[in-house]
Design goal:
The chain has helices at 2-20, 166-174, 194-204, 226-234, 254-269, 295-304, 323-337, and strands at 31-36, 40-41, 44-57, 59-65, 71-77, 83-90, 93-99, 107-120, 124-136, 142-155. The strands form 2 sheets. The chain has a 6-stranded mixed sheet with strand order 2-10-9-4-7-6. Helix 3 (194-204) packs parallel to helix 5 and helix 3 packs parallel to helix 7 (323-337). It is 26% helix and 27% strand. The longest helix is centred in the N-terminal third of the chain and has 19 residues, at 2-20. The model is unreliable at 1-27 (pLDDT under 50). The chain is α+β, with helices and mostly antiparallel strands and 339 residues long.
């Protein structure tokens, strides 16, 4: 019962001040800011609300605009003595409120009003916008501030922290080209199969469905990759490892990935690979390890900046490509073909 009475008193204090007192815009030097110590994390984000040069802050109500499909409110906290109303979320608007209790003066000077912790529901970038602030002094006079402070937050996969390909991967996630293995993991160093890369390149090139058939006996009807392999084959982006075998579950090699990239580049330009000029050089010490059929593709890809070596000396044509490498080269292809 005691808690209910306190809750009622708080609500009445705020309501009476906000509803029945004529609102006035601030004419003093008070300023309010929203800041964050981290705009990128694997899950939670905290914003800090601060008031500067306050004269008499007894209570406040702050509203924020968020995308509730991407963010949830974890908690709101303040070190100001008194009573807080738990965050209220309605129609993508978050409301928090706090009041001091009793016959006491309001806060003065530079004061941290409180912090709000949000949790990102999915990987990607979202925004928190502080839209309004109502303040009440100890005489119950209120002021209304129209706020225009906002902050972008980016949730990254937990296994991308510090990874060399993180910026490119997150950009391609934002473009909805690639997805994680689950909500928290991308597995950047896991190998990519030939079917997986064919699917990704078909997505980058925005290939249309094909009613045609492929000559591959190992691309059976009903498999998840059937449609994308058909698209990529019809567009001339892929070839088999033999006349009737695509080997969809085989991990793709770097030279095989290179060939698909150059075929995609040629398709976008409306030309043929054999008509694309190359200087005939592969500037890596392991040039002899590149298959004869793949040499023109490697030459063209390196010249176009679509592929780099695993190091300054080695292209590593026979090594398997990782998910990170696949995303990075697809980002380059996307930029190259202007899709």
């Amino acid at each position: 019962m005691k808690h209910k009475l306190i809750w009622s008193a708080v609500v009445c204090t705020l309501c009476s001040a906000i509803t029945f007192t004529t609102a006035a815009f601030a004419e003093d030097a008070s300023q309010f800011t929203m800041s964050t110590s981290d705009t990128e994390s694997t899950g939670e984000f905290t914003v800090t609300l601060k008031g500067e040069q306050l004269a008499d802050l007894f209570a406040y109500e702050a509203k924020f605009s968020i995308d509730a499909s991407k963010l949830e409110v974890v908690k709101a906290e303040t070190k100001i003595e008194g009573f807080s109303i738990s965050p209220i979320l309605k129609d993508n608007e978050v409301t928090i409120a706090h009041t001091k209790i009793g016959k006491v003066d309001g806060e003065k000077g530079d004061v941290i009003l409180g912090t709000i912790t949000f949790k990102a529901k999915k990987v990607g970038t979202t925004n928190v916008k502080w839209t309004s602030l109502k303040t009440v002094d100890h005489t119950l006079k209120n002021q209304i501030f129209t706020m225009n402070a906002s902050q972008d937050f980016t949730k990254i996969f937990s296994d991308l922290a510090g990874h060399w390909a993180k910026p490119d991967i997150m950009e391609m996630v934002g473009k909805q080209i690639v997805e994680g293995m689950d909500d928290d993991h991308f597995a950047p160093d896991t190998n990519v199969t030939r079917a997986q890369f064919a699917t990704l390149i078909a997505k980058v090139m925005n290939l249309k469905d094909s009613a045609g058939q492929t000559p591959f006996d190992d691309v059976a009807s009903g498999f998840w990759y059937e449609s994308t392999v058909k698209k990529a084959y019809a567009a001339g982006l892929i070839d088999g490892i033999s006349e009737h075998e695509f080997a969809p579950e085989k991990n793709i090699t770097r030279e095989e990935m290179t060939a698909m990239l150059i075929r995609a580049k040629a398709q976008a330009a409306g030309t043929k690979v054999q008509d694309m000029p190359a200087n005939g050089e592969i500037p890596f010490q392991d040039e002899a390890e590149v298959s004869e059929w793949a040499k023109p593709f490697v030459q063209l890809a390196v010249e176009a900046g679509l592929m780099n070596g695993r190091s300054d000396q080695a292209f590593a044509p026979q090594e398997h490509a990782s998910r990170a490498e696949a995303v990075v080269v697809l980002k380059r292809l996307l930029k190259d073909v202007g899709h």
